[in-house]
Design brief:
By secondary structure, the chain is mainly beta. It is built from no helices and eleven strands.
Length: 128
């Protein structure tokens, strides 16, 4: 699976951006698709995930109510709509995918190390 992320940019606090991650190479039906972010000097942290087949979604507490993850099955693309952006949302955002078939823990979607496929990052900068 190849993942191509896009949509990053610079925005003022309170603004919105939508990130896209297009998957190619094989269908991602049954996969977990996720967004992680990495701020300068920090680790890669979970933002949101979606179970492709069911549409079930999962969010980090820090983005609940502000970010929405969704998918377009026909386009094999996952989106991250980011509203009410804050300066602390500034980071490089990465999309990730995994079949999840090897996961033994129901909350495995939360951990970057569980994902086999990664896209290149896209930078989001939020100014105050």
């Amino acid at each position: 699976v190849q993942l191509q992320a896009s949509g990053g940019g610079s925005v003022q606090a309170g603004g919105s951006l939508r990130l896209s991650c297009a998957a190619s190479g094989r269908t991602v039906s049954g996969y977990y698709m996720a967004w992680f972010r990495q701020a300068p000097g920090k680790g890669r942290n979970f933002v949101a995930a979606i179970k492709w087949s069911s549409g079930d979604t999962y969010y980090a507490d820090s983005v609940k109510g502000r970010f929405t993850i969704s998918r377009d099955i026909a386009k094999n693309t996952v989106y991250l709509q980011m509203n009410s952006l804050k300066p602390e949302d500034t980071a490089v955002y990465y999309c990730a995918a995994d079949e999840g078939s090897r996961w033994t823990y129901s909350g495995s979607y939360y951990y970057a190390g569980k994902y086999k496929y990664w896209g290149q990052g896209t930078l989001v900068t939020v100014s105050s």
